[in-house]
Amino acid sequence: MQREMRGTVLSEGLCIGTVVKLPHKKNKDTREKIPADKVADECLKFKDIQETVYQKLQALIEKAEKTDDSAQAEILKGYVAILNDPELEADITEKIKTEHDSLPTALFLTANEYVEDMKSLEDEYLRQRADDFNELFSMLLFCTDPSSDRKTPLLVQKSVVAAHTLTPIDMAELDKNMLLGIVSQTGNKTSHAAIIARANGIPMLSGIPYDTVKNGDTVIIDGADLFINPDADKIQSANTKHTILQKEQQSLKTLISKPAVTLNGLRVELKANIGSPDELPKVKEQNADGIGLFRTEFILNENVQTAPSEDFQYGIYSSVLKAMNDKPVTIRTFDIGGDKQYPCFPIPPEENPFLGWRGIRYCLDNPDFFCTQLRALFRASTEGNLHIMFPMISTENEVKKILEFVGQVKADLDAKGIPYSTQVKLGIMIETPAAALIADKLAPLVDFFSIGSNDLTQYTLAVDRGNDKISALYQESHPAVLQLIRKVIETGIKHGKEVSVCGEMAGDSALTKKLLNLGLRCFSMTAVNIQKVKREILSANIEFAEKNNEEVQ
Questions:
Q1: Dihedral class, residue 338 (left if φ above 0, else alpha if ψ from -120 to 50, else beta)
Q2: Mapping DSSP to helix (H, G, I), strand (E, B) and coil, where does residue 546 land?
Q3: 434 and 372 in one domain?
Q4: Cβ distance 399 to 421 under 8 Å?
Q5: Boundaries of domain holding 214
Q6: Do 184 and 127 share a structural domain?
Q7: Contact between 480 and 461 (Cβ < 8 Å)
Q8: Helix, strand and coil in the chain, % to nearest 5
């Protein structure tokens, strides 16, 4: 009999397929003591399994990189960073040495401590990361007991995977060519599995109880709807819709070479957001007008224990600038803190990290770290069209301090005879209501604004964007958010500064005309969304009126 449920959409799409369930993995409660003369051997055993897991993760990273799955690769590199954290090793070996716990016992107890500590945090994103620690410890425990029943089922045919919690390791081990869709009990849009699913165009729903479906069930995922063992009419209807969607994808490809111009002749820039150089082929494939947001935090995963060197960073930035052939590349300085934690820069636990020591606040308090990145960026600027963007601005004084550091870096490069471009543009992210409200004071100090709609929405509405319980309150089109966006755009026009939106909102084609009506002329988004947004622009007839209030009601 057909059943129907609604879940939370983590990755848009439609699919029809047979269910394969992943086992609900739980670490076994193992309590065992060892004699004193076995302690050294047990510690060595940990080093061995640590290396085994490291090699497995590296193999999965290599596999992801070969298939241009940069989202998967960067997340797995985060696992490597956790695995190689000296504090993790110290916590485990301490239990072996002082308590004479066996290695499985030390792993189990340490896993529980880490996971419980993270689940007790107020921040939803960090609570979600508890699943990452749990998965990593599961891998370590599996290596101590090869007879463990922890196995990822091999997809021998195209299937829909059902899971209690789908981890990045699960995603790495599953063949994406066989993966039609995903339903899970837990997870939200900021979960690693959801990020990977969106990057690969795989439909994903969360909030579906694990026992809802069985192995072998036929299911349809259609937006937020899940149909279990649908009748023949429903299957036929879904197949028809799927065919239409495939034709739409082919139609969108015909837009790639066309400029984004409205019916009344307004040219709109469509740029791409990237999280690593591995995403450049997708950017070029979609013929983006440039890169509107290059997130540099992946570099910190490459440098597990120490800060990335100036030369190391220079190599990355210069390669991206060269690859974009003089199209603008907006590189955001390190946005550490909040939901971004890295072993090489440990930040003490905060009650509310999203309101804490993050973004430019951290960088200004760590000038050596900040200036190293600035030096690398300015050195690389000779290779292309560089824009530098600073995150999490809330005061005029922060921008003035940034400009002081930029001046010091330029003076140092000049003194050493190191060349750099004098055409580098400096801009700030508008992602706090404070920055939006004082945009008039900030505009004379910078060359451009980029609106980070994700954070701007959560800060304006006081809604944690990663909290499943209040996800319905997270509305980017809320009148309060739109009024702030309009204010920033109008300020940019007044001062002759470019304004873009680089959050999820920019890639939502349902909001494209609304943003155009607010005066936006530059969108930056995940590359795969560019043609959908362009289609809306090509059919728009926009007359921006400064006093038009219709779009913010």
A1: left
A2: coil
A3: yes
A4: no
A5: 3-22+151-250
A6: no
A7: yes
A8: 50, 15, 30
Prediction pTM value: 0.68
502 is an active site residue: yes
- Look at residues 474, 449, 2, 512 and name the one whose alpha carbon lies nearest to residue 229: 2
- Residue listed under structure tokens 């897991």: 53
Dump pLDDT digits (tens) for 136-147: 777 787 777 655
Strands 328-332 and 291-295: parallel
Do the beta carbons of residue 303 and residue 344 sit within 8 Å?
yes
387 a catalytic residue: no
> Residue 2 is which amino acid?
Q
Identify whether residues 120 and 211 lie together within a single domain: no
**Contacting residues for 110 by C-beta, under 8 A, at least 6 apart:** 88, 91, 92, 95, 137
Instruction: Judge whether 27 lies within some domain.
Output: no
**Is the CB of residue 347 less than 8 Å from the CB of residue 357?**
yes
Angle at 133 between CA 127 and CA 139, to 5 degrees: 150
Residues 266 and 214 reside in one and the same domain: no
CA distance 17 to 216: 9
**Active-site position among 143, 192, 344, 522:** 192
Residues 96, 226, single domain; the answer is: no
Same domain membership, residue 323 and residue 261: yes
pLDDT tens-digit profile of 54-111?
888 888 888 777 776 666 777 778 778 778 888 888 888 998 998 888 888 888 888 7
**Nearest Cα to 139, choosing from 161, 167, 118?**
167
